[in-house]
Amino acid sequence: MGARTSQAWVNAAVNNLPLIIQDHANCEKKAAGTAMNLIFRYEFSYDLQRKLAQLIREEMLHYEQVLGIMNERGQAWKYLSAGRYAKGMLKHKRTYEPAAMVDVLIIGAFIEARSCERFAALSEVINDERLAKYYRYLLKSESRHFEDYLALAQSLSDDSIDERVAFFKEVEAELISTPDTELRFHSGDPIAL
């Protein structure tokens, strides 16, 4: 990652935990859905199929666990629009194969890495020990997902992916460090909240 999460984001997230928990649930569901789409589009690779199947199971388990946390907290499900983060990276995805798939996997790696960083940051400051413990629990799988995505991206490319990783590192850093009018799990610096 090219930029650390700001203290302003951490403070806003702590003060808006129900929104962050809801968006976290949405993120887990979207991650599973994205992996499911990829598993149907790219059936030629055994390693890719196996890793994506594993990822889908884990992301759906996490989704179920976050729903349980919401239920325990008496938090009703509400519609929450997606933030700009993933869309902001995907608009730079190349449109031809296998480059498009490589980019999607690199973007997935950055999303997982950012999730890992934010779980760590929140687990240190939130007062809800059950939630803090859960966020610490997620660190291991999110870290593994990051590594899996990068390894899969490299396995689909004859050339080094380092240049694309560096490119998306800059895009991701800008999305995280610039002002953002919506607070989301992967949003930039909060303004006008």
From TrEMBL:
Molecular functions per Gene Ontology = tRNA 2-(methylsulfanyl)-N(6)-isopentenyladenosine(37) hydroxylase activity
Please name the taxonomic classification of the source. Answer: Bacteria, Pseudomonadati, Pseudomonadota, Gammaproteobacteria, Moraxellales
Q: A biological process (GO) annotation for this entry?
A: tRNA modification
Query: What is the official name of this protein in its record?
Result: tRNA--hydroxylase
CDD domains from the entry? MiaE (cd07910)
User: What are the transmembrane regions?
Assistant: none
Organism, scientific name: Psychrobacter cryohalolentis (strain ATCC BAA-1226 / DSM 17306 / VKM B-2378 / K5)
Q: Superkingdom of this entry's organism?
A: Bacteria
